[in-house]
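Q: I'm teaching a short session on how sequence maps to structure, and I want students to see two examples side by side rather than one. Could you give me a first protein with its sequence written out and its structure tokens following it? Keep the formatting plain so it prints cleanly on a handout.
A: Of course. Example one:
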Amino acid sequence: MQRHRIQKALGALLLLPWLSGCLVHTRSVQQAKMPTGVKSATADELVQSINSHCQDIQSLSATVEFTATEGGAKKGKIKTFTSFGGYILLRKPEALRVIGLLPVVHTRAFDMATNGDDFKLWLPHYNKVIEGPNTVTKESPNALENFRPNVFSDSLLIHCIGPDELVTLTSDTENVPDPKTKELIVKPEYDLTVEKRKENSQELIAERVIHFDRLTLEPYQVDIYDSKGAIQTEAIYGPQQTFGKIQFPGTITIKRPLEELEILTTFQKVTTNLELKDSQFELQVPSGVTVQELH
């Protein structure tokens, strides 16, 4: 019986060369090309690079254009809002002012200010002011209410990596079309995972992952995680541009995957390390407006 099975298997193998011509179809696929000039770095070198850039900018003033998009697979539709201009003021450690202007008339669509702990958001069109802590303590079904100042400040400038944080470095590749030739090329990258130990515990939790382009060793994306291990915010940095004497991304796209919210910020003018006063981060609540408290 065993011998019979062996003979049948050998017979099937002998038939494969003839059967393959009838049962197998071969087609060509585009091969991805490996780019030249791929650079290498250690985790310590990438940490040093991040911290050096982090310390270079202590304050920032920018003229920008915002484009907001809401929706996706969960909502079943995508809605893109009309682009509008605005201004951003940032002073470390956590002072931030973001002003949006209505198209054409250029009056204020919104005005958000924070000193680092609490924030105020004035919506003149609704005669309303929203107040609350910078970070969300209770999720709101309204995605815009979860878009607090820390989302902007965490995305605009990559924070320094502290001595109490642990890092691991991995490498990865992705096949992407060349923007000029449209040919498929290999995009090599480094992923620097920044972790921290839970308080009174040895357990490590991922705080963020910084993605580096290995052709430039510059960061092009940061994924920021929530306490449950889900990606809360993605900050995607466009190509560097020259603003005066500094290099800064021409665009920063802030994505909130869980809420299906995205804001593209296009930078038109950027000035760094100028003196900004406390009063520039204070928003006086107009009299007679409705005040909504957030948690």
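Q: Perfect. Now a second example for contrast.
A: Example two:
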Amino acid sequence: MKYKLIAILIFLYCSNSLSQSGFQFQTNKKKISIPFKFINNLIIIPIQVNGVSLNFMVDTGVEETILFSIDETNGVNFSKIEKIRIRGFGSNDAFDAYKTDNNKLEIKNYSDISHRIYLVLDQNINISSQVGVPVNGIIGNKLFKNKCVKIDYISKRIIIYNNEKKLISAIKNYSSFPIELIQGKPYLNVNAFFNTKKQPVNAKLLIDTGNTDAFWFFKQKDEGIEIPKKHIDDFLGRGFSGDVFGKRGRIPSISIGNYNFKEPITAFPDTIATLDIDKIEGRLGSVGSEVMRRFSAIYDYNNNIIYLKKNNNYKEPFSFNMSGVEVQHQGLQWITETYRSNSVLNNNLNNPYSNKVEDNLKYKFELKPVYVIANVRKDSPAAIAGLQKEDVIVKINNQNGYNFTLEKINELLKSEEGKSIEFEIDRKGKILKFKFQLKKIL
């Protein structure tokens, strides 16, 4: 199953200010390299915010920098805070947030001394629970707008170029495609076949690294967009303004220039979640990280170009969570584990009565993750077996749940049709076991 955090489209109910200078190199190096974590199709990088290290998701689908999670230990100081109203992707109403200017952001030797941040301090927004590592915010356009930026999904590095010759050397063997920047976000044209008996739909899609799916299409935007006959109703993700539901199925093919994807799994969000997006002229959907991770991509916002070169992920099939159960991280727990220490030494020791000293059990206490079931798709194998939302996972296939990462759980749930999965769960203090088989439905 794909991770379900969706990209956030923000509409700001306040006036725009003068443009900012943005990120600049603080070194004479021709490029800088930033390692990232790639978890469930999301890019996570560390950024210093006013001297405090925080984790940000890199999302080409947003224009502004957003901070939504700061605990007491972070201690970030802000100045010039202004209350505003914003609306995100989802079905709920607009809500309060805060705008703060003149912040210093540093990523290695790449920094911005007058960065604007929007603070969305809502406890219901928790990306960390969806990826299993702390995530404090989202950064998008401001990271890309001044320099050419390469995302290498194989080496898990972001390369920012400060030298034109170095860039020219880097784009050899890449294919170039024009992109259109609207509100600071990149749009790319694709040809999508929804019906092999009809002509393809030429679609302008948002390049959205914060969307973990392959493609999204907005059915109401073009009569040529057809939902496959074989589809499921599914939970598609969470935005700042609520959950998003829709349909999911495989369409015949989608092409980006000479790059062609056969039978990609495609999502069709419900109309209510896309009402505000409809105001963006010409946009028919999104191309997400499940596609972009198959390329090495260089973003050149200043010249409205993206350079693509397929990588080792390119030929991977478009897989799907065949269990129907969504799992999320739900904090940490103390786990007590026993072990024997210095067993060889102890076996050679005797007490004052000449009796052999037995090994003493040692105890160690470690913080381990807690996983819960966040959603169960109707009529799925997990639902038929009896699993329910808010069940706490104790074991998976007889292994302690806390020994898994969230990524490993998701890989298991989309591994192979017919594979048996057993969950031992805690349901309000009662331990229950459920067993089912993964079933390919798309």
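Q: What should students look for in example two?
A: Point them to this: The domain at 11-163 is CATH 2.40.70.10 (Cathepsin D, subunit A; domain 1). Also worth mentioning: The radius of gyration is 24 Å.
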